[in-house]
Amino acid sequence: MIAEVIVDISTSEIDKIFDYVAPPELDLRAGDRVKVPFGRQQTEGFIVKIKENPDTTHALKSVTSKLDDFTPILPEMLELMREMSREYNLRLVDVLRLFIPAMMRGGRIREIKRHFVTLADGVSYEAALSRLKPNAVNQRGVIASLGQGGEWAAILGEEYGFSAVSALAEKGLVKVTEVTKRRRPALRPVEDKRVTLNDEQAAAAREIMHGDKDSYLLFGVTGSGKTEIYLECIEEVLSAGKTAIMLVPEISLTPQMMGRFRARFGDKVAVLHSGLSDGERYDEWLRLLRGDAVIAIGARSAVFAPLRNVGIIIIDEEHDGSYISENNPRYVTSEVAELRRAYNGAKLVVGSATPALETFKKAREGKLGLITLKNRVNGTGMPEICVVDMCAELRGGNNGFLSEELAERLEQTLADGNQSMIFLNRRGFASFMICRKCGHVMKCEDCDVSLTWHKEDNLLKCHYCGKPYAVPNKCPACGETDMRLGRVGTERVIEELHRRFPSARTLRMDKDTTRKKGSYDEILSAFRMGEADILVGTQMIVKGHDFPNVTLVGILDADMSLYYEDYHSAERTYQLVSQMSGRAGRADKAGVVVLQTYSPRHYVFLYAKENDYEGFFRKEINVREVTNFPPFTKIVRVLTMSEDEERALGLTKEMLAKIRAYQKEAPERFVSVSGMKSPVKRIENKYRYQIIMRLTREEESDTLSHVYDIVNAQEKKNATVFVEINPQNMN
Ligand code: ADP
Ligand code: ZN
């Protein structure tokens, strides 16, 4: 037999399949990891196929050994590997690596197997002793310590020597069994509050499981009972003997959230997230592979959970940016989920209060079933949203961070003994330029996205077409000279709070205060325990936390994400505002949101205020269509990185010329093509240059594969080139 092997070599460009002889005694299968001779050394590799005959007449080398005592890559995953490699232009080996815990490679982690010693079957304590000589002190000692139960071989060996144990085993007096010790992530136990689904929820669960669509969008605000519907569907899937995958943004994988699933399904749940130790991660993964656990809960990468016979895949908060991988290998979680859904004939459910525009569009076109939950389970309404015009505040003489409205409400909330959250909208590296008087924002004339200030050459640039603009010394709209680069830090907000409310207790959550492992959870639980009155934070405080005493939410600089140089910015801002609002007034207390902005009449805020996602959708989808942005086009970025700037630039120029030539041949396939320095010029000592193109939707996959061909044909020594589709950010 012949094994087709993909060698696991990190540095090389090699992504070829090699034939090796498969020695029968190794009993090899497709999906096994093996050691093979490669060049002058031994290398790890993956078997992707077993076949009768080689494709070549050359003498073949043999597989040296098998690395695991199980087959880590399921047949489904081999299929997925081929599809992902084609779709995202990835090396096969990079895809395969996604399917196993990283530490398995290079044998850096194993199952902990321990030997447990008991009396052999049918041998009594007395009988065993009677067969041993009085001077066999160590062996008698072993028997004596076995007593009724048994003991770990390691402990016996330390006390009496391993030879005593093996001598007893040879005589048939004791039995040694191998036991796997599982490293289990500790989870706070949560009581399983079994609720009876209300009519809306029950109908939703029924539709998902028995409706005529394969995939559904569950569209409902936070607190509308989506998680209970997921639990119900999973239960049904399990009782049909199938398995389930539940994906949640990393940041929402709180102990409470995981605890809810543990409480309902116990040991059938395996969790996969970045907080686990390598050992825990490996063991949880193995429990899934072996079928000991049948539900995988985790962040993005759990979409690769080694489960067979998947009955349902759920993606909660589907609009979340964390579902798109921004490091190599780049993939889109929902697309991978769809491939697995189709392979298994399973159901796919994506849930959100603020679906991605593209998802909602698909639902409206009937490509996804649309299930809408109109009400919150506990009957509380959505909080009131007050939009405050910061330009007016400024004209009125207030040039601090807090509007009068927010300051008054903070004071009242403090007096009432309730809690407040202040969210500082500060995304990415970008700084846009805004007039403090009229709120005018500098935008690209061609692309209608905000310009970003570049420090190194003091220019404003458009990140879509690369066009540079001089920094204006006065506002082109009103003539005011107080133009500012939007950016405020959490410390400065805390300072201002302390000045105005000296007795208020504050907590701060941002990149700086959460650097230490566990500090994120510490801050949140301190706030939940009421150790502070006001929590000030960035993006991190937005998601999925339930703080029953929060009645006031302040959103500072709501514009920041609005004028982020990105066509998504309105969508992102809508999502942020409605998620932040979801934090105010849970349970029995009414909530208020104060939203500060320099553009109070922007449609995002008008719709957000009315909690009208569908209205927002209709407006925004229209904007996208008119301006030729996704989902009506596809944005493709070819990113080239190298430590050698000339090299990165040279490569980019060569590829750009070829792509431009192709554009000339088939102009109808392109909206635009441009090349520029990446907004963030150097990351980790590598210079970054990029080509950005917008493809029209017709025959777009054909266009894309042509672009892949151009990139793949390029000789790429000393540089790395990635092709990304609809990148989340342009850094
Ligand atoms: P979502 O996932 O949409 O935010 P959840 O499923 O978490 O909503 O529900 C919000 C809260 O309401 C939870 O505490 C949940 O236990 C409770 N809940 C959900 N459905 C019901 C129900 N039918 N009866 C009683 N309580 C419910
Ligand atoms: Zn532009």
Please, could you describe this protein's structure?
- The longest helix has 21 residues, at 645-665.
- The model has no long low-confidence stretch (mean pLDDT 87).
- The protein has a 7-stranded parallel β-sheet, with helices on both faces. Strands 16-26-25-17-24-23 form a 6-stranded parallel β-sheet, with helices on both faces.
- It folds into 5 domains: 2-107, 3-Layer(aba) Sandwich (GIY-YIG endonuclease), CATH 3.40.1440.60; 112-181, no CATH class; 199-373, P-loop containing nucleotide triphosphate hydrolases (Rossmann fold), CATH 3.40.50; 384-429 and 488-624, Rossmann fold; 633-725, Ribosomal protein S10 (Alpha-Beta Plaits), CATH 3.30.70.600.
- The chain is of the alpha/beta class and 731 residues long.
- Helices cover 32% and strands 24% of the residues.
- A hairpin with a 2-residue loop joins strand 28 and strand 29 (686-696).
- Zinc ion binds next to loops.
User: Within the CATH hierarchy, at the fold level, what is the topology of the largest domain?
Assistant: Rossmann fold
Under the CATH scheme, which class of the largest domain?
A: Alpha Beta
Secondary-structure class = alpha/beta
Cross-sheet strand order for the largest sheet: 11-12-10-13-14-9-15
Number of strands: 30
Overall structural domain count: 5
Indicate the overall shape: globular
Distinct small molecules bound, one entry per kind: adenosine-5'-diphosphate, zinc ion
What is the terminal separation in angstroms? 49 Å
Q: Report the radius of gyration as a whole number of Å.
A: 30 Å
Task: Tell me the fraction of residues in β-strands, as a range.
Answer: 15-25%
Helix content: 25-40%
What are the low-pLDDT stretches, counting only 5+ consecutive residues below 50? Answer: none
